[in-house]
Amino acid sequence: MSTMAQSFVIKTPCSSANIGPGFDVIGLALSMYLELHVTVTPSTESKQPLNCRITYEGEGEGTDEISLDPEVNLITRVALYVLRCHDQRAFPAETHVHIKNPIPLGRGLGSSGAAVVAGVMLGKEVGQLHHLTGERLFDFCLMIERHPDNVGAALFGGFVGTYLKPLTPEDTARVEIPLSEVLPAPAGGIDTGIRPPEPPHGIGHHIKFPWAQEIKAVAIIPEFEVPTAKAREVLPAQYPRNDVTFNLQRIALLPVALGQSPPDPELIYLAMQDKLHQPYRQTLIPGLTEIVESMTPATQPGLLGVCLSGAGPTILALATSNFEEIANRIISKFKENKIVCNWKVLEPAEGTTVVRTR
Ligand SMILES: Nc1ncnc2c1ncn2[C@@H]1O[C@H](COP(=O)(O)OP(=O)(O)OP(=O)(O)O)[C@@H](O)[C@H]1O
Ligand SMILES: N[C@@H](CCO)C(=O)O
Question: Tell me: the pLDDT tens digits for 137-151?
Fold first, then answer.
C-alpha cells in the first residue's frame, strides 16, 4: 500500500434500460453522473468503522434510503465485497468517500446500477487491484445487480447490448448464490472474517451500438418511486408466443434504427414498442399505456419514440427537437392522474471514469 495521501474522483453515468423491447438486454448511459470524491490519508489509527467515513449530498440525502454506515451503504458495501474477495477486510485507513448523487432513486434511471458500478470501481481503486479489467469488474457487478443492462451501460458507456454467457454448472451455482451471501447483512461492525463468494469469470458481456448524434433523450421523471424489485414482481413467468415474436421483431430493428443518421422517425417509433414488460407495469404507473400510445412522430414534431425507462416510473422520449413541448405533453398526461414530474434533456454518456486529483 502507498504511504502517500491520494485522492481521486469516480464518475459513473445514470442509465436507461430496455428502450422498449430490449428487456434486460439494452442499456443507454446518459449524461447525469454519480460522483465519488475519495481521499485516502494513511493513518495508523482510524476511529471510523471499517476505516471509512461517508458524506453525502444529493438525491435521498438525509433519508433512510441512504445510509452513511459503510457496512450498510450500497456503494461502500459493494466496494467491501471486492476488497474481501481479495483478502482485504476493510478500507485503507483512513478513507473518506464524499458521494454526490443527482440520480433520482427508484425512478428507472439506474441509480442502483450506478451505485454498484461506482462501488466496484471504488473497491478496485482503494484496494489497488490494478489487474481487474473492465470485463472482470462487470463480473463483480453482476453478482450484485443481476440484470446486465444498467450496470453494462454505467460501466462501459454509450448504447449497449448486454448478454450473459452459459456457464459451467459449478459457475452457475456461484452466480445463483443468494445476494445475502454476496453482500452479507451488516454485522454491527464485527468482522466475521468470512471470504465472500468470488464471481465466476465471464458472466456477462456487452457490445456497443452506434447512436445517431441528432437523437437526445428527454427524461420525464415522476416524483414517486417504483422499486425495481416490485416492478419485476408484476411480470409474468411465461409469455404468449405472439408477444415474444413481437418483441424479437422490434429488437432486430432497434440498434440499427437508432444508429442511422438522419434518424427515421417511423422506424424508430415502431422499433421502440414492447409487449414484455410495459403493459404489466401499467398497474404501478398510472397512465403508462396511454402515454406510450398517445404520441407518435406524426402528431408530435421532433418525436422519435416513447418508452418506459428501465423499471419506471420515468418515461423516456427520444427526440431530435421540440423537447419542451414533448415533455409538457407527457407531464400533462401524468397530471391527469395527479402525478407531478420533473424533466431533463440528456445525451448519451461515456462510461465510468477515474480521475486522480492527487
Ligand atoms: N448513490 C447511492 N448510494 C447508496 N444507495 C443507493 C444509491 N443510489 C441508489 N441506491 C440504492 O438503490 C435503491 C434504488 O434502486 P432501484 O433498483 O429500486 O431503482 P433504480 O436503480 O433507480 O431504477 P432502475 O433499476 O429501474 O433504473 C435506493 O433505494 C438505494 O437503496
Ligand atoms: N431490465 C430491468 C431494468 C431495471 O432498471 C427491468 O426492466 O426490470
Answer: 999 999 999 899 999
